[in-house]
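Narrative progress, year one. The postdoctoral researcher (J.K.) led the effort to move from monomer predictions toward full complexes, under supervision of the PI. The following entry was the first complex the group processed end to end, covering 632 residues in total.
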Amino acid sequence: MIKLTFPDGKSKQYKKGITALEVAKSIGPRLAQDAIVAKLDNELIDLTTKINKNGKFQIFTFKEPEGRETFKHSASHILAKAAKRLFPQIKLTIGPAVEDGFYYDFDFKRAFTPEDLNKLESEMKKIIKEDIVFERLDVKKNEAKKLQKDQPYKLEMIDELGDEQCTLYKHGKFVDLCRGPHVPSTAKIKAVKLTKLAGAYWRGDAKNKQLQRVYGVAFPDKKELNQYLHLLEEAKKRDHKKLGRDLELFSFHDEAPGFPFWHPKGLHLYNTLVDYWRTEHKKEGYVEISTPIILNKTLWEKSGHWKLYKENMYLTKIDNQDYSIKPMNCPGGMLMYKERVHSYKELPLRVGELGLVHRHELSGTLNGLFRVRAFTQDDAHIFMTEKQIQSEITRLIKFTERIYKMFGFEYKIELSTRPEKSIGTDKQWETTTKALEEGIKKAGKQYYINEGDGAFYGPKIDFHIRDALNRTWQCGTIQLDMSMPERFKLTYMGEDGEDKHQPVMIHRTIYGSLERFIGILVEHYAGKFPLWLSPTQVRILPVADRFADYAYKIAKAYDAKGVRVEVDSRTESISKKVRDGQLAKANYILVVGEQEIKKGTVAIRTRDNQVIGAKKADEFLKQLLKEINEKK
RNA sequence: GCCCCCGUAGCAUAGUAGCUAUUGCGGCUGACUUGUAAUCAGCAGGUCGCGAGUGCAAUUCUCGCCGGGGGCUCCA
């Protein structure tokens, strides 16, 4: 007999050699039905695995990440099997689960077509119907090589394994090198859809052979697949590139790929975010500077960008000298810091800069406002002593949170530690990383660690915000920099009266970039901006021509107080103008006619078909100003 | 940059190796003067992304370029 302990702490005796699935059945038929994979102590095991020892035991379903991962991974194997059936010559590489679903990378003599995708999907469904079991094979390396002899990529992977032993999974005639675990049978995958084709490189390196990647999603029932497809549709409707055009926020032109043109309404969003940023930064004790966007090559050599970042920099010649348009704001900021002697009493010195930077991003990576070649970073450089790091970080995290909350964003924090290639001493990295960690803890926040993902010049904190569709975006960042102060020989005068102490420096952003942040906001709000931010706060609709004067009178009064107001005086039906007002996503739509003129009122409704009723025009103005002021 | 897909009026679309290139929205003009999600009629708007090639003939086929979309981090 063996004893298994369940997550609730209870334990139960079983016959030796019982399978994980049988254990699940003993707990409940529903669990057995939903079960995907199990965990014995710290090892994930197939449901068909025979258990021969005591241990902590847990069953995972699609609800848990472990279950989802296994499920998607199995779907990817079914894809590989389908590909092998349809195209026997195909070479298999890898096929992992990813956040959205799964993919498999193939090496095939010709490019896949969308029809191939359909065929593959049909074949997968057939395999699922056939209810083929996943059989695990534990074999020696050379045995595995025999089984995978016509698969060069697999052979390469087998050779790289540290272990002598390796595992393969077999379903029917198909065998694939795989660590596992897998679902017991292909029939478990109830709903599957192949979503896209893409190019990818073997081992993610552009120098290697280009492979074809097939992406798909898989779910335990059709309903969840449909929900997923619905979410995709919703995301498509919210696409900031489409809304940006429909709402007249911004545009892109062939003549300037990657460089956004801001239209009046989009620029209003931009300026409102900047105003808010300035107000809040003032409260936090920041000063604001502005540095030139074109700077001489000598500066970029000093900062190290010329060597490490030249590929991404726009270069220009002035009076026969090399200049670069800045890709980052820091070197200019360094020059300003160095202009005079700084006292320890000034520290931490918080210097903000809304800096317009240009980066030559690869053409294939451009994506609306999400990835552009010119953008404004809401940058700041903070100079301080080593002792001040922790408290400054805590303060910054709270500050960042305050800003994100204004937009209803939840967020999570990632801490990235020392990468392989880095500068500075072990001790420096240890103290600075620790300071960041302590700073996060003191702010009372949870965080994830990204081992080795820091910049070469220091550890960093990244903020990932979660939008209304549950998608995450990296926005804010706090980076400790041990390189710039050294390169630029920054100093401050300490209590000892000597101007030779080196300050610690951080670079940080909160929005990340105004452009990207606006792109995220457009999708987050689906274009329905909160009143304080909205480019079209009020639209007034006169019922007929003869009431237009009244509408303009109100508009003028509102405009004088800073309300963003438009009048739709077209001789169209009121229904039509209401519809257009809603499509323009004006927060409030005011209808005025005979009755309103008599009483000096406006008839108020919202863009969401909500009728609010009549109010005196000046009273409604007061209400608007109050709401705007409270940033509702 | 690389791979796949795409490019027809401001936007969204149909279509074809061969007569004046389709439709809807939007725009303009006129009529209607409208009371809460589309009033009616008419008109204008396109070198079918750009360049080259093949053909009697190219928006359609081929090649190149430009631009857009998806992907190129997730590891048997």
